[in-house]
């Protein structure tokens, strides 16, 4: 290739770069050009080799703060691969040290133990009494046989008994399993919130023709707030039902594997409860539990997603906005509002709004709602494990202080990073410490027994004390 041909090729290669950069610079007014006299030497644009000389333009580095570049998918893929390889190494090290510990059959064996789960079954069946009582109270008010004031009082009495009944059974019945206690307490708490919404909504508009089907549809629907007519989809899609069911089965299997293969060996290395450990040992165990606990928390969220959508599809329930994009939250307050939409709606409708109507300042009403939710979380975990140490409640209060005092310093991506850090070191880690101490207490009483799935389906530790 002769020099003239080579020059033509190189001109074409750089022509587009020069033309675009020149146009941008001219339109932005970055450079003011003085008039060129006939005696001045030719500029770079007029030079015969202009396309070779013009190879630069004004632009920011991609990773600088002034850049508008947003395509980081490659970096995200790199992080995912790095995390997979890192945890694959941890799993391999765990497998070499402990062997294969996953045994799903053991879980089912504990679930079908008659002497441990019949009290829980009785509790679940007994919940119908409170639901039917609420329906009868509404019918009496509809017929005028009961005044609204007395009806409201009887509803509150029914709800009070509903909350006290499972607590009394769990505390005083020695054969209630921990897993059964968890499920029963969760069922009664959800039922109490639903029945409160049921009587409040009927008080706002006294509806006619109350039926058993109407009440039980609401009790089974994936919502906590009652209304006259729920939005429904045209039909049930069987393929979606099977898809959600398969998701739940797979996620539960993975959760059982993480607990038995990863978390339980860490528990087995402990000899004392967290409350009696020195600070160094406590930090060491907490650091080891951060990753598996966080994975369990994420899997629990996805299990909740699959379960709620399964129920919604089965009942043709149309409102399936169960959560927002909490993973993009830049503040903890935004996360709390998007993590559990049904609970957030219930709190706003039946607690926050009523407090504001009673002239309670909105900021104080929000604080009371948050403290109530923290107390419910503590209650749901501490009671079945027979261990109330207020760790979950105090961690959530600490997160509230972080959200209030650091919101002006951590914004945007930094705020989102702070939210994820609080999830890693926050309530989920506090919850796992309760299970750790329960496991240690049970293991000390049954040294010869094989360790179950974090003893979730075994007798509580107080049974050991009674048998000694």
From TrEMBL:
Keyword Metal-binding: no
Keywords, sorted A to Z: Acyltransferase, Endoplasmic reticulum, Membrane, Transferase, Transmembrane, Transmembrane helix
GO BP annotations, alphabetical order: triglyceride biosynthetic process
Superkingdom assignment: Eukaryota
GO molecular function: diacylglycerol O-acyltransferase activity
Similarity comment: Belongs to the membrane-bound acyltransferase family. Sterol o-acyltransferase subfamily.
Annotated protein name in UniProt: O-acyltransferase
């Amino acid at each position: 290739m002769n020099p003239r041909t080579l020059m033509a090729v190189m001109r074409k290669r750089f022509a587009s770069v020069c033309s675009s950069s020149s146009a941008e610079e001219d339109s932005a007014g970055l450079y003011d050009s003085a008039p060129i006299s006939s005696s001045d030497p030719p500029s770079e644009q007029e030079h015969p080799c202009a396309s070779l000389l013009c190879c630069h333009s004004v632009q920011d580095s991609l990773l600088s703060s002034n850049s508008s570049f947003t395509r980081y998918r490659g970096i995200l893929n790199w992080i995912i691969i790095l995390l997979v390889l890192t945890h694959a190494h941890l799993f391999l090290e765990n497998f070499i040290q402990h062997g294969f510990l996953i045994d799903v059959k053991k879980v089912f064996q504990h679930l079908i133990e008659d002497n441990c789960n019949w009290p829980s079954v009785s509790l679940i069946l007994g919940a119908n009494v409170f639901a039917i009582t609420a329906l009868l109270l509404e019918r009496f008010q509809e017929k005028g046989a009961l005044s609204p004031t007395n009806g409201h009082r009887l509803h509150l009495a029914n709800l009070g008994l509903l909350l006290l009944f499972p607590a009394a059974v769990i505390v005083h019945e020695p054969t209630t399993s921990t897993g059964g206690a968890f499920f029963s307490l969760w069922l009664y708490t959800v039922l109490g919130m639903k029945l409160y919404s049921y009587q409040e909504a009927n008080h706002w508009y006294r509806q006619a023709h109350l039926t058993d089907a109407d009440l039980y549809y609401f009790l089974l629907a994936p919502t906590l707030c009652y209304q006259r007519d729920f939005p429904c989809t045209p039909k049930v899609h069987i393929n979606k039902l099977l898809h959600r069911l398969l998701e739940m089965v797979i996620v539960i299997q993975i959760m059982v594997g993480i607990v038995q293969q990863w978390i339980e060996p860490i528990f087995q290395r402990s000899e004392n409860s967290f409350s009696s450990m020195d600070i160094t040992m406590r930090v060491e165990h907490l650091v080891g539990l951060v990753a598996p606990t966080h994975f369990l928390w994420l899997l629990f969220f996805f299990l909740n997603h699959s379960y709620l959508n399964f129920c919604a599809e089965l009942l043709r329930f149309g409102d399936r906005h169960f959560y927002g994009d909490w993973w993009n939250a830049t503040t903890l307050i935004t996360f709390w509002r998007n993590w559990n939409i049904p609970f957030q709606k219930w709190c706003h409708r039946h607690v926050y709004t009523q407090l504001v109507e009673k002239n309670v300042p909105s900021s104080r009403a929000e604080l009371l709602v948050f403290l109530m939710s923290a107390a419910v979380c503590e209650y749901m975990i501490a009671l079945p494990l027979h261990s109330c140490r207020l760790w979950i409640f105090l961690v959530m209060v600490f997160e509230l202080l972080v959200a209030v005092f650091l919101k002006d310093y951590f914004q945007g991506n930094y705020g989102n990073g702070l939210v994820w850090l609080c999830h890693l070191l926050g309530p989920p880690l506090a919850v796992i410490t309760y299970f750790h101490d329960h496991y240690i207490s049970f293991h000390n009483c049954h040294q010869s027994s094989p360790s179950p799935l974090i003893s979730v389906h075994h007798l509580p530790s107080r049974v050991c004390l009674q048998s000694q």
